[in-house]
Amino acid sequence: MEHHHVKDIWNADLYDGNHSFVSKFGSHLLELLSPVEEEQILDIGCGTGDLAHKIYQHGAHVTGVDKSENMVHQANIKYPDVTFIAKDVLELEYNNSFDAVFSNATLHWVKQPEEALQHIYNSLKSGGRFVAEFGGKDNVQIITNEIILQIKKAGIPYTPDQFPWYFPSIGKYTTLMEKTGFHVTFAQHFDRPTPLEGETGLRNWMKMFCGNIFENQPEAIQEHVMIHVENNLKETLYQDGQWIADYKRLRVVGIKNG
Ligand code: BEZ
């Protein structure tokens, strides 16, 4: 399986320590999901399991899947009562199994959105709902534009396929959902300025998430790029002692017809 060959970039402790905002912000999405007792719910990109566990506390039966074995390992230790499986969304083989598919802050990592939607659709029972939030069009654009600029200035080769994410517009994504067969009942694209804790917040964020863009460049070069990014963005994104990232979210709900 693919994830046995690809380096697992996810450090579960770092994720829980410095990046717990990912699951904290996700709690509002749970209201959109509104899990009901005894429902079968699939959480795609469950990370270390915080939101899957919250869904479980509503009395639903939850299966959490994540491509990262590190994340799933940690999730199993934290929440032994919930089922967690290491699996990529593109490897899911469920058929008419779930009342709902939930996904927070994950689908922007999947650059084959049509395939992902098809796997999600197949996983749902007829009438089941898909409730997701992830990065939408222009997400973290101020940050990534500056990183790419500084990488090019440092003479590091960069091509757009190195961009690790898929950040669709509301129109593009809901169109794909409809093509897959979903009845789209809700879609929202909104700004969510997101604090990155402390003076080193932006640096931690870049170290955690921008591995692909740096493409195994020597530490010294990465350091050079990060210092320039920090200096150039400080005026725009650093306020009252903390960095604020220009997150833009896309939230959708779709119902499986037929
Ligand atoms: C996001 O949740 O929007 C995100 C996280 C890491 C990198 C890029 C985007």
From TrEMBL:
One of its GO terms (molecular function) is S-adenosylmethionine-dependent methyltransferase activity. InterPro entries: Methyltransf_11, SAM-dependent_MTases_sf. The keyword Methyltransferase applies. Keywords: Methyltransferase, Transferase. Pfam families: Methyltransf_11 (PF08241). Residues 42-131 form the Methyltransferase type domain. One of its GO terms (biological process) is methylation. This is SAM-dependent methyltransferase.
